[in-house]
Give the backbone structure.
Amino acid sequence: MTTTTPLQEIAENLPIFTNREQKEQFLFVLGALTARIISLRKAAEVMNLDSEALLQILDLLGIEFSYLSPEDIEREKVW
């Protein structure tokens, strides 16, 4: 009988990517992005995607991503 770790179970439930390794890698990259450890460009490189494709995936999953502060975003909206 094979048991899976919680990370593997979570990864298997991701609606994107085809294999578990890609899904686990995406979770790792997502964590690194939100912690601001890596750039969007580096995250896309790790996932073998271009930056625009990674942004589209994040958007499809409803994950808002920006390195701008909330104040910067508001300033851009009125500009």
